Amino acid sequence: MGNTDTFVITSHFPCSAHDLYTWHSRAGALERLIPPWEKTSVISRQGGIAPGGRVEMQMHLGPIPYRWIAHHVEDNPGLMFRDIQKQGPFSSWSHSHIFTDSAGGALLEDRIEFSLPAHNFLPGFLKRRVQQILQKVFRYRHATLREDILLHQSCSRTPLRILVTGASGVLGRALVPFLTTGGHRVWTLVRRRPDPEKLEIQWDPMAGTLDARALPELDAVIHLAGEYIGLNRWTAEKMQRVIDSRTLGTSLLARTIAAMPVPPRVFLSASAVGFYGDSPKHGLDEETAAGEDFISDVCRLWEKAAAPAEAAGIRTVLMRIGVVLTPKGGALQQLLRTAPCGFFRRFGHGRQVVSWIGIDDTISAMLHCLTCSDLRGPVNIASPAPVTNTELMQTLSTVLHRPLLPPLPAQVLRTIYGQMASEILLSGCDVSTAKLTASGFCFRHSTLAGLLRRQLSRE
User: Fold this and answer.
1) In angstroms, rounded to a whole number, what is the distance separating the alpha carbons of residues 395 and 456?
2) Among 366, 453, 328, which residue's Cα sits nearest to residue 179?
3) What are the tens digits of pLDDT across the range 19-55?
4) What single string gives the DSSP state of each residue in 209-233?
5) Which residues contact 105 (CB under 8 A, 6 or more apart)?
6) CA Rg, the chain, in Å?
7) Is the model's pTM score more than 0.85?
8) In this structure, are residues 113 and 84 in contact, taking their beta carbons and an 8 Å threshold?
9) Mean per-residue pLDDT for 103-120?
10) Is the Cβ–Cβ distance between 99 and 80 less than 8 Å?
């Protein structure tokens, strides 16, 4: 019996070996490849993938957190690099990333040699379990890498200079690594003291301060910042913060970039399908009028605040984003909190329509909107296959093999959450994505079940 086991997975990619190596060498590559079902975060990084590079991560073994520290020890540019575990659960761990040109593209081989504590004395099923976990992780990594490369090839091979707000939010944490691994240079606006080495620039949207002189020449701006609406009872103060954080920040940013000596070519500003309110109609397109509830008013004012950019001739896209699904945050993370016991059969009558979209399709649509010169004005960014609340809960139950619990009555939700329950949990709208798809955008996930299986390691 050997002292180590070996795991190998090889996949073909539609690019050169040099392109694959370069993708892995860029900032954000590790974050982009962390499976969404894993409770893993990058704590610190020093250097790149060349020898001397160091990465520290917070990981979990079940509910138990631990630190993983890896050192890069070997690098042959364009061909391979290798890292080893310096601190973690394994007795030894060596991971080689090997890139080889082949017919019609390139091969990526991930080769891992590992041993567990008391490796030679452990029962075989534990070692097989490690192999199974690695198989799931690297199947996800290779699938995501292939989809990202194909999208970057179709959207833009020219590096762009992009400013992003809301980079610390759920969407921003996914978007920035996606852009940087595609070769784009990304600056971010932050409210705290900025770190210039990380291309951070300070602003205070509530105070109306943003020094235009600190901004570099930009090709594009993607504006995601705004107070989290949350899943708690709304107070008058909270509702005002939601409005102000969106209108004041958007107006400040739009006016600032409009006045730049060389304005960016495109401005993407976030909004939401909540613009349409709670509607019984199907296929709501971008010409549909705004609804009449609080969320509709927020979105209408939010979009109006972007007008100075459009007036200055900057191509402006108002991204009406659906319910973004990821176990890393938002609605899906909240729903998964009941997963060990099961899922409520429905909220209220359960017929409210959820215009959902996976987080990878959301950031992919942003890149598409950024580079597709035909798109401007409001654009619905949601799956072309919306579901009802009842269908959402049933699909979660099926994918995770958890029971369906009794429904949550509407009156109970309104008693606990007030207006938030009426406008978020018990309302819905069915939006059309014809404008987005007609521009050439292709979704990664066409069904809710397929998305959830990918995100929750149930493929």
Assistant:
1) 12
2) 366
3) 999 999 999 999 999 999 999 999 999 999 999 999 9
4) EE-GGGPPP-SEEEE-------SSP
5) 12, 13, 14, 15, 16
6) 23
7) yes
8) no
9) 92
10) yes
DSSP-derived secondary structure letter, 408: B
- Taking each continuous run of H as one helix and of E as one strand, the counts in the chain are 14, 21
> Rounded distance, CA 358 to CA 89, Å?
32
Average pLDDT for the chain: 95
* Orientation of helix 17-25 relative to helix 124-155, angle to 10°: 100
Calculate the CA dihedral of residues 206, 208, 214, 217 and round it to 10 degrees: 100
User: Residue 157 CB: number of other CB atoms within 10 A?
Assistant: 9
Backbone angles phi, psi at 53, to 5 degrees: -65, 150
342 exposed, middle or buried (CB, 10 Å; 0-12, 13-18, 19+)? middle
pLDDT tens column, 308-335: 999 999 999 999 999 999 999 999 999 9
CATH number of 5-154, picked from 3.40.190.10, 3.40.50.1820, 1.10.645.10, 3.30.530.20 = 3.30.530.20
Query: DSSP string of 164-203?
Result: EE-TTSHHHHHHHHHHHHTT-EEEEEESS---GGGTEEEE
Beta bridge partners of 114: 5, 93
Strands laid side by side in the 105-115 sheet: 5-13, 105-115, 92-102, 80-87, 64-76, 54-61, 41-46
AA letter at 372: C
DSSP letter string over 20-65? HHHHHHSTTHHHHHS-TTS--EEEEEES-SSTT-EEEEEEEETTEE
Helix, strand or coil, per DSSP, at residue 451 = helix
CATH fold group of domain 160-455:
Rossmann fold (3.40.50)
Token couple for 368: 């598409």
- Residue 132, C-beta contacts closer than 8 angstroms, at least 6 positions apart: none
Q: Contact at 8 Å (CB) between 91 and 119?
A: yes
Tokens of 413: 């939700």
Give 406's DSSP letter.
P
Q: List the beta strands (DSSP E) in 250-314.
A: 266-272
The whole-angstrom distance between residue 34's C-alpha and the CA centroid of its chain comes to 11
What residue has token string 């932050």?
190
Q: Residue 1 above 60 pLDDT?
A: no
- Distances in Å between the Cα of 375 and the Cα atoms of 1, 83, 160, 368, 380 are 61, 43, 18, 9, 11
β-bridge mates for residue 356, sequence order:
323
The structural domains of the chain, with segments of one domain joined by +, span 5-154, 160-455
Cα-based distances in Å from 316 to 208, 266, 270, 372, 435: 21, 6, 11, 12, 15
